Every structure is written in C-alpha cells, then in structure tokens.
Amino acid sequence: MEKIANTVFILFGLTGDLAKRKILPAIYHLERAKLLPPTFYLVGISRKGVSPDDVVDLLLRNAENADEASMVRASLHKRISTVNMNIDEARDYPILFDHLHALDLTAQVPLTRLFYLAIPSPLFPLVSEQLSLAEKREARGNDASSRYLIEKPFGSDGSSAQHLINLIEASFSPSQIYRIDHYLAKETVQNILAFRFENPLFSKTWNGSHISHILITAAEEIGIEGRSSFYEGMGALRDLIQSHLLQLLALIVMDRPDSMNAQDIHRAKEAILSRIQPPLPQDMEQKTIRAQYEGYREEAGNPDSVVETYAACTLSIESETWKHVPVLIRTGKALNEKVTEIILVYSDDEHTRKKNYLTIRIQPNEGIVIDVRIKKPGFDDTFDEVQLDYCYRSRDDVSPEAYERVLYDALRGDQTLFATGAEIMECWRISEPILEAWKDKNFPLYHYQKGSWGPAEADRLASQASIKWFDETHRVCTVRRF
Ligand code: BG6
Prior knowledge:
This protein has 2 domains: 7-151, NAD(P)-binding Rossmann-like Domain (Rossmann fold), CATH 3.40.50; 184-464, Dihydrodipicolinate Reductase, domain 2 (2-Layer Sandwich). Helix content is 37%, strand content 22%. It is globular. It is α/β, with parallel strands linked by helices and 482 residues long.
C-alpha cells in the first residue's frame, strides 16, 4: 500500500449537496486529525463565482470550536483555490490545467491529481473525455499520477452501466478509477471479512449447513428530502439494493480470498456475485415486493408515480456453500427508524424452534451481537434469551466516517473498498430482471404509512421462509459506556 502522495484534490461539484454534506466535512476532519500531508492542495471547481474564502468558510462549518477553526484555517487556507469554469465546455479545460500546472510549480513536485467527480452521471462521458484529452496534451507521463473518484449511480440499467464503464475505461486505466460505494467504507462493513476469516468458530460454520437464512435490512427514517427529480429516475431497488446492499451480501457470502490484497478480494467478490440469482420470472410476484409511502406522489409532484420507495426481495445463491439459503433483502425510505443490519440465522434442523441470530449492525449502535439461549438463573429450569455482544461505542477508538475513509484510501492509492466494473455489472444482472418485472403495470405497488415498518405484504416474504423480519424488538448495542 502506498503512503499518501503529494496531492491536489480537484473537486467537481463544489457547490452540490454531496460536497457540502460529505466531502468537505471529510476533508476538514482529515486535516484536523493531521492526516493530510502539508503538500495537500484543494481546488474547487464551480460554474458560479465561488472564491477560495467561500470554500474555507464551507470547511470551517464543521469546526467544533473557534480554536479548532483557526488552527485549520491557518494550516489549509493557503492551499485552497478555485477555478470557475463550465465543465461542459471543452474550451474551459485549459484554464483548469494551467492552474494545475502552476500548482506543481508552487509545490515544486508533480502533484498526484485526485479528481473527484461529484457530478450528475450524464456529464461523466464529457468530463472524463475532456480530462483525459487535457492530460494527454500535457504529457506528464506516468498513469498513476492521476486518479478519478466517481460517484454512483453507475447507470440506470445494465446496458447504460456498461456504456458508462466502457466510456470511462476508454479514458482512464482501471488502476486510476475509484468507483465509490460508501457502504464499503463503513467501519463495521470493513470488519466483516476480519470477523469471518479470523475466527475459527465462525469461519467453520459460515455456510448453509449451519446458517439457514440471511436477512439484510437498510431502513431509513428520512424520505426523499427534496431530491424528487433524482429519486423519480431511481427508486429504492436501484438506489440501495443494486449498489450498497448487494455489495454487503457479497462480503457476507464470498469465499476466502487468496490474500487480503485488493485484487484478490475483488476477484472473490466478483465470483460470488456471479452466483447470486434473482427470482425466476414466474416467482417475481411472490418473491419481490415494491411499495410507496403515502404522500410520496404529492412530494414528488407526480400524481401517477409508480416509483418504489420500498423494495424487498428474496435471492438465492447457486453455490455448494449456500444452496438452499434464502437471502432476504429489504430497504425503504420514511420508515420507523434508521437501521442497517445483516442477520445470519443459525437453525437446528431437528429443533426448528431453536435459533441463534448473529447480527452485524452497521448503523447506528454499530456492533456484532449473538443471541443465545441460556438457563435462566434461579431455581427453575427455564430458558432465557440473552445477547453476547461487541459494541463499537464501548471502545475509545475513533471510527472514521465513511467518506473520510473513502478519501483517505484514494489518497494512498488503495482500491480495496471501491467497486470494480465487473461487480457493478453483476449487481445489475441480479437487479434488472426485478426491475423488468416491475415495469408491468399490473405488478402490485403496495402503499405504507410514513413511520411504519413498510407494507404488511413484506411479511409474506419472510413467512415463506418460515422466519420473521426483525423490527423494533431487536435492540442491539443500545447500552453505551458514555
Ligand atoms: C445513498 C442513497 O447512496 O445512500 C441515498 O442515494 C441514501 O438515498 C444514502 O439516503 C444512505 O446512506 P447512509 O450512509 O446514510 O446510510
């Protein structure tokens, strides 16, 4: 793994929502933690007349107190600049590259260029082509001196994703492309492989002979938060399942990689993703659920919208290890609470009543928890259910926020926590037949109340598998030390 290079971070989409909510706070926190090198430069790109002082102000919004703010201002402000340009105008790119060239001279080293494309995906082809042309004209040599961070959505279906991948790969080499899936950068998600493979108790029983079901839930309390034009073209299946949740599933069911280096991990993920199957066309109505929260159509300004704000499905895995283990996935907006978790159900065939649950809680109250049955203390021989847990918040270690980890890994050139083109295409192969089935206007679209746990019909998926979804009764790591 490389150490952090002398870098110029070029942020396209400086004034956008993602920059304000995630990227600039991540830069601020990395600088505050002194994780950025003194040769870290930030260039904000915007169409509007944004000045370097404006960027400093945006960064300092994350300060916890005045002392901290003045420390970060003093260390960063001279290394922040802006370029005002139209990113869809080829003739503006020389302005940017002259600026980057001048920064190399100031730093007295050729800076590694980290371009962050926080822009709508229709602009990807044009922007990547212009960047690649400009870099070639400049002929700085060495591929590795530029990296490109790209945000989802990666297409809206398999063919548009493939088109986008081809376009981007025509401009840049795979080692330059960092496709962000910020769920992979969440601390608990990174622990999945360590927990699975470093503990014989679990590595030996992590298979369909012991595990009967896998449940994945990503519930959000928020609705679409004014992002109706984005969400109308998206829906819950594309937004969360095709990307984040299938990535989580891959980490849960992949075989042990040959090593823990990025290439081997990606190879193992791609192999297992290619075995995950959507329901057969004739089973779609039984094994998938789409639903919309009440009031969504008014909020989206589209009285006829059939866009799902809730999606659930049952997938299967065609592999020796996982055959007969149904995977139930659900996600939704405007639900009762924010919770993302993976639950592995250990069942005993002969005593189906007896189950153990292993919960990997990704957020909030992060932790790994096992529900076990014990003898209830006292004179009677009755049983009780208790939890053995490891809760992150009971430790003092600091878990970086996902976007801090994304930026830090891109800065040091580690591609492990990014998605490959092949992974993205497999996720589309799994999701697309479901989206196809949902195009049928007779396919049921259920409705649910905001603040509920989603449509009652989703219970059907669970009962088909003779289990129940967990809801508010499943408390994990709620006891904190502070
Ligand atoms: C994004 C989706 O990728 O993830 C959003 O586009 C969603 O709709 C968000 O709200 C959830 O991320 P997190 O980190 O808050 O769980």
